[in-house]
Amino acid sequence: VQFRAVRNDGSREALVLLLGLKNVFIRQLPNMPRPYVARLVFDRKHESTTMIKRLPGGEEVVMGGCCYRPFPEQGFSEIAFLAISHNEQVRGYGTRLMAHTKERAKQLGLTHLLTCADNNAVAYFKKQGFSKIITLPPERWQGYIKDYEGIVLMECVLNYKVDYLN
Length: 166
Ligand code: ACO
Prior knowledge:
Elements: E1 2-6, H1 12-28, H2 34-42, E2 47-54, E3 60-71, E4 76-84, H3 93-107, E5 112-117, H4 122-127, H5 138-141, E6 152-157
Parallel strand pairs: 4-5
Antiparallel strand pairs: 1-2, 2-3, 3-4, 5-6
This protein binds acetyl coenzyme *A.
Acetyl coenzyme *A binds next to strand 4, helix 3, strand 5 and helix 4.
């Protein structure tokens, strides 16, 4: 299994991987409107950590991923969607996916990850170091992400002394 940061740069490789990831999201996040998922995944301001399995024939299959939008000036990334294919869940891939997403955010010079977590994903995010207590000053994120009622805004503060992949 391989993890790769992919952005829609118009290349065939990126489009194939993002299409695979969009299909995982649509299956695993049935409450999300499909056009909305497609719009963000292919949006050029968004980027995705893709989790790729190489089949014996050499074909690459996307088994999961995490789509986020970096806001470089504000110092954070907002995670929009995150999912692992049903038959690969609870094997530790979700944890590795988040570790790669954190390291990528550090590469981009960001200090925080924010997400609007589904209620049933709150426990997962807590295990990944996210908290419901938002320490990022409101002026850095309000107006940038949709903080509507019924969702749980969660934050992870990135620690540059930690190698999340080790
Ligand atoms: N509720 C409680 N605990 C959970 C859940 C859950 N829904 N999912 C995983 N965990 C726990 C695991 O038990 C594990 O705990 P442990 O370390 O003590 O053993 C830990 O979280 C990590 O488990 P992984 O195996 O690394 O996670 P997994 O590969 O299953 O991926 C994920 C987790 C991505 C949430 C997956 O279950 C999934 O795709 N779910 C459906 C889609 C979804 O809900 N996505 C998040 C929506 S919110 C958003 O997109 C912003």
